[in-house]
Write a structure and sequence with these properties.
heterotrimer; A: about 80 residues; about 60% helix; C: alpha/beta; five-stranded mixed β-sheet
Chain lengths: ~80, ~375, ~325
């Protein structure tokens, strides 16, 4: 799975949660939740969607590791590797 | 034969537009079935039937504006339906079970004409800005407000904004608020929750807010005076139906009710939130989820500021605010430590209770949060 | 169209009245040989002769009583009381005879009398000779009281008053005598019982009469520059007051500013204000406002006299306040 594919899934999920925003405009260092004003409930929905779409498992203690777009993409890569 | 009247979907509601009948005459219905869709300032609401029986003649046309308390149909017994009983239709609207008094306009400076037009158009003058002499509200001001109020002319988010404006103005005008606040060490609760979440599949994982809701719901048993309505006197409620403030992305709020929160387990509460929050955001709530709230909770969520001082949602007598959870220095047993700390605030109606009641309530919530395993 | 002064309009009205019937005659102080103290009847003595243009002694009570007697005997007298200021001396005759005889006689005796008097300020005539007493007369049942606030009414009100079988008091305005205006020729007859919209508008009603009419029209013109469409309602009849016309105007504009030179307390505007409240309270989009002459004895110096009566600029600024 390429970085672009991951981003495409991420943007689609974010757009579903926050239809009034344009996630594609996110810069790698932007904090996703702050930038798109997504609350904790919606963020949980986002992670649920992410796990399902990308077939990974995100434990709660990792939520803090995926603040920015860059972190998120790197995190997904690492989980995919871990999953083999 | 039981009359079915337009229910009041909140203290600020005077009427709604019937958008769709979900039943036909002769249909068999059970208590809780959706009988119609009604458009209010809070969006399209599914209204439910309160009794089992057979739907009688439908007395209201689709798209009619229907004042609260207006007879809409009858729920008949089998025998009545079989006998083809045609209920007599009273000439004037009857009083609905949950009608609230019309908004008070006593202290508003408005011209007689403005008042007349406001009444005709169902505008609460409190939400109108006056531009006449000495800031008096003129007809033009009301018409400007009415233009924005007519659902056809206004966007959904503007409708929600106006509903919030009306309810909060009424509250601030009528309710003498008092405020209490306390900082709570959340470390224990959060640690407990993190452990619990490890065992839960992602879909069932808990958010800190469900612990807060449960802690509040249980505290209502200890201090029932804050789980109440003010209706010319304090009326304590048997059920703990927590209103949960959901902010809409487009601005404005919806406050769906988490009914019987004290009877629900944490997972059930989480399931309730998972069910109700998306529907609140889509403005597809059921009437029973809007009207019976006994106490409102607003939670800012993590990353947010420290504390929130709320405005009570009438006729309730209290509102709890949970600030963001932050790491902070914490002194305990003569030692200083860093803990996850959250500020709880209480806004309460001083007509109904005094500071001592609020004090007991906050202490009870704190105690509950220190014993997460009991939640 | 003819252009003529208010004085000339009154004279033409008198001439028309005298020509209409041999029973009509004018009596008053200095109306004949002197030609009237404001020259309204100048030349009429030569035209109609001393039996119909009758100089009388300085005795308001006496000659007003004579007029009432003549009316009772079938004549159609026009009594000129030189100015409203002297009418107090004739008050007993006006109130206790002219206004009351129809009632006292059980309907057998009517008094078809017209009493004209010049009213308001007369340009620096001081406290005793500058009264605006329309409200005093409008208080009395049994009288009709009309006010000629325009040239058209100055021209046509006298003949209309003569057609009334009961006493009519007609107010004319000293300060307007030299004022010129264009008039249709011939003019249609006027209906004494109706108020008249002098200028139509939708934003504010200026309700006035007599010396207030032209001032209100001036003010309305000024406010038109600001985009405000002001209605000017000339009451014309002060007794009875045309409530219907007032209500119709307020229903249209939802704001009323009442303008008169008479003192404010217990005035025509007091009455109009009360009727608006009684009849169309829920049409009001702002409190009714009033502009009246200051409640002081009329000062002599010109600048103080100007300050004591209503000026168009005051009407303009009061109206602006009412729009918020």
């Amino acid at each position: 799975m390429t970085e672009d594919q991951i981003k495409s899934v991420v943007f689609h999920l974010l757009k579903t949660i926050a239809p009034d925003t344009d996630p594609a405009q996110l810069k790698p260092g932007d904090n996703i939740r702050q930038k798109l004003s997504i609350d904790s409930f919606d963020y949980l929905q986002f992670i649920v969607g992410l796990d399902k779409e990308l077939s990974i498992q995100t434990p709660e203690e990792d939520y803090g590791k995926i603040g920015t777009l860059k972190e998120l993409v790197e995190y997904v890569f690492s989980r995919k590797e871990a999953a083999g | 034969m039981i009359p079915y009247q337009m229910p009041s979907l909140g203290a600020d509601m005077e009427s709604g537009f019937l958008r769709e009948w979900k039943v036909r005459p002769g249909d068999t219905v059970k208590r809780g079935d959706i009988i119609a869709e009604v458009e209010t300032q809070k969006g399209i609401i599914d209204i439910e039937v309160f009794d089992d029986g057979i739907v009688g003649q439908l007395l209201i046309k689709v798209d009619d504006k229907v004042p609260v308390g207006t007879l809409m149909t009858h729920i008949l017994t089998k025998e009545e339906a079989a006998a083809g009983i045609k209920p007599e239709i009273p000439a004037s609207p009857q009083v609905a079970p949950m009608v609230s008094p019309p908004p008070s306009v006593r202290h508003v400076k408005a011209s007689p004409l403005a008042r007349k037009v406001a009444e005709e158009k169902g505008i609460d003058l409190v939400s109108v800005r006056g531009t006449g002499p000495d800031g008096a509200i003129t007809r033009e001001d009301v018409e400007r407000a009415a233009y924005k109020t007519s659902p056809a002319e206004r966007s959904v988010s503007e409708n929600v904004r106006m509903a919030v404006a009306a309810a909060m103005s009424k509250s601030n005008r009528e309710i003498p608020h008092y405020y209490l606040a306390t900082a709570v060490d959340m470390t224990k609760s959060l640690t407990w929750m993190a452990e619990a979440n490890k065992k839960l599949p992602l879909l069932e994982r808990l958010l800190p807010v469900v612990l807060l809701l449960k802690a509040v719901a249980l505290a209502c048993w200890e201090v029932p005076d804050l789980n109440a309505w003010w209706e010319n006197g304090l009326v304590s409620k048997d059920h703990v139906n927590l209103g949960f403030v959901v902010s809409l992305r487009s601005g404005g709020l919806m406050v769906p009710s988490i009914n019987d929160a004290d009877q629900k387990s944490l997972s059930q509460l989480m399931a309730s939130l998972n069910d109700v929050i998306p529907r609140a955001r889509a403005m597809k709530l059921k009437s029973s989820e809007l009207v019976q709230t006994t106490l409102t909770v607003t939670s800012l969520g993590e990353g947010a500021v420290e504390s929130v001082y709320g405005v009570i949602y009438p006729p309730q007598v209290a509102l709890l605010g949970f600030g963001g959870i932050h790491e902070a220095p914490w002194a305990e047993n003569g030692r200083l430590d860093v803990r996850k700390v959250m500020t709880i605030t209480l806004a309460a109606d001083h007509r109904a209770t005094d500071g001592q009641t609020g004090n007991r309530f906050l202490l009870a919530i704190n105690k509950n949060l220190q014993q997460p395993e009991k939640l | 169209m003819t252009r003529l002064t208010y004085r000339e309009a009154l004279k033409q009205g008198l001439r028309e009245a005298l020509q209409s019937s041999d029973k009509v005659f004018l009596l008053g102080e200095d109306v004949g040989r002197y030609g009237g103290s404001f020259a309204v009847s100048k030349g009429l003595l030569q035209e109609f002769g001393p039996e119909r243009i009758m100089d009388v002694p300085l005795s308001e009570s006496g000659f007003t009583g004579a007029g009432i007697g003549a009316a009772l005997a079938g004549m159609r007298p026009i009594v000129e009381i030189m100015t409203v200021n002297f009418s107090l001396l004739a008050m007993d005759q006006i109130v206790n005879n002219a206004a009351t005889l129809l009632h006292m006689s059980g309907g057998q005796l009517n008094v078809p009398l017209v009493i004209r008097m010049s009213c308001g300020i007369g340009r620096q005539l001081a406290a005793q000779h500058s009264h605006s007493w329309e409200p005093l007369f409008a208080h009395i049942p049994g009288l009709k009281v009309v006010s000629a606030g325009t040239h058209e009414d100055a021209r046509k009100m006298i003949i209309a008053a003569l057609l009334d079988p009961n006493p009519v008091v007609l107010f004319e305005y000293t300060a307007m005598m030299n004022m010129e205006a264009d008039m249709e020729d011939p003019l249609p007859a006027v209906d004494l019982s109706k108020a008249k919209v002098r200028k139509s508008g939708k934003d504010l009603s200026l309700i006035t009469y007599g010396s207030g009419v032209y001032k209100c029209l001036d003010a309305a013109g000024e406010l038109a520059k600001e985009g405000k469409e002001i209605e000017v309602l000339d009451l014309r009849s002060l007794r009875p007051i045309d409530t219907e016309a007032i209500v119709a105007s307020v229903r249209k504009t939802h704001r009323a500013l009442l303008v008169e030179d008479a003192w404010q307390s217990v005035s025509i505007s007091s009455e109009v204000s009360a009727r608006i409240m009684e009849n169309c309270f829920y049409e009001l989009d702002a409190p009714v406002q009033r502009l009246n002459g200051l409640e002081v004895p009329m000062p002599y110096p010109k600048h103080l006299e100007d300050a004591a009566i209503i000026q168009p600029s005051q009407i303009v600024s009061k109206a602006r306040q009412m729009f918020g």
